[in-house]
Amino acid sequence: MYSKYAWEKYDDKSVIFDFAEGYKKFLTFGKTERLVVKESAALALEHGFKNLDAVTSLKPGDKVFVTNRGKNIALFVIGSEPLSNGLNILGAHIDSPRIDIKQNPLYEATNFALLDTHYYGGIKKYQWVTIPLALIGVVCKKDGTTVDINIGDNENDPVLGISDLLIHLSADQLQKKAANVIEGENLDLTIGSIPLKGEEKEPVKANILKLLKEKYDIEEEDFLSAELEIVPQGESKDYGLDRSMVAGYGHDDRCCAYTSLKAILDLNEVPARTACTILVDKEEVGSIGATGAQSRFFENIIAKLLVLENKSSVLDLALRETLTNSNMLSSDVSAGVDPLFLGVNELKNSAYLGKGIVFNKYTGSRGKAGCNDANPEFIAKLRKVLDDNNINYQTSELGRVDQGGGGTIAYILANLNMNVIDAGIAVLNMHAPMEIVSKVDLYEAYLAYSQFIKSIK
């Protein structure tokens, strides 16, 4: 069903609202990549998946998962056909724009203790000041232990924040361009103001170190091997008087991650082709590194599956043929049309909240630079499956041709010679601390992903 209002086909909307409740809990908990992987692995075990490291052979219907460095997870339901016939893959990223803590962050200035930061991904810096923030992540100590940190999102926790200049003294600041109203080096996190009694040099910093030692048993030098992320504090919420939408941090791209995850967790039949959901890190900074989509992690896991299936060493050609025969939905969000900013869109080729899953044949910018341009033969197969199952979908581009642009992980997997197209959910306020999605789009995406892993040949 192309470009029809998705809400209209549901007389009983309770299934949509019930589905959104699970998503809200997932989004509230999973504010970092590590937490998303932790929750996804727990859900996988609850749904009968086994850790691939404990498996010595594979047969049709087996459900397995594997994690990578705490920030990737891949789940598989083994199909009745040989792996070499190809997989149906749902791929989403689980990192979101945020602010990170530097390696030497802690300092004192004018009786405040602060943490020095470096923002991650594309953000409007002015959106991150004067809002309640949380500090979440891990500190890895030299003795091999890892300390989990969550300050701000637990019950009765204090919140943290980044200050801004008061309006009374902002005459010069307000003359700056929006990109420079808040400088990157001024996105420092305020974490305390009480001095440690008897400490003459940096007493407020000394008091913070004392608190960190008492609660977490960490020293200042342990920041050198820490991964601490500053994220918006608080729960995801219903949005709108009709509760038709969800407001929260990290919809990009955890709304697609959740629906892709649910699609494979709920797959209770043996598919013809092996089904896969893979959740990756680092998309917001180019998909690079050991946990990004450009890592060899995915190829290595497919090679291992081939070995377990055939009980013999895998030939490089078999791996390449498996990837070539595979299909993938790059499950990533699209920019939803905002009624207050219509000028940036070409409206008949744009995504609208409430009209179902969004397909982007290509992303990139201007002259399609950096895009994956999906093959029309593949798109035709998708259209048939969705139409046959009464699932709402729409197509979109990312704004007017010369307005800007962006990219996803689609081109990376397409470089392995498989069919790939971007397919996700329309978002308002993308990359802001509070983003908006439609509940019906979440549910339609889940239905689309479920049919894709079962039906596409």
Put the structure in a nutshell.
This protein has 457 residues and is an alpha/beta fold. The protein has nine helices and 22 strands.
Distance between the termini: 20 Å
Outline type: globular
Number of strands: 22
Note poorly predicted spans. none
| Spatial ordering of strands, largest sheet | 1-2-3-13-4-14-20-16-18
Question: How many helical elements?
Answer: 9
Quote the average pLDDT: 93
Please tell me how large the radius of gyration is: 23 Å
Q: What about the largest sheet?
A: 9 strands, mixed
Q: What structural class do you assign from the helix and strand content?
A: alpha/beta
Helix share bin? 25-40%
Instruction: Please state roughly what percent of the residues sit in beta strands, choosing from under 5%, 5-15%, 15-25%, 25-35%, 35-45% or over 45%.
Output: 15-25%
Q: Secondary-structure blueprint of this entry?
A:
Blueprint: H1 14-29, H2 33-46, E1 50-51, E2 63-68, E3 72-77, E4 87-93, E5 98-109, E6 112-120, E7 133-140, E8 146-151, E9 189-192, H3 203-216, E10 226-232, E11 237-239, E12 245-248, H4 251-265, E13 274-280, H5 297-310, H6 316-324, E14 327-330, E15 334-335, E16 357-360, E17 364-365, H7 376-388, E18 393-395, E19 405-406, H8 410-414, E20 419-424, E21 426-427, E22 435-438, H9 439-455
Parallel strand pairs: 1-2, 4-13, 4-14, 14-20, 15-21, 16-18
Antiparallel strand pairs: 2-3, 3-13, 5-6, 5-10, 6-9, 7-8, 7-10, 11-12, 12-22, 16-20, 17-19
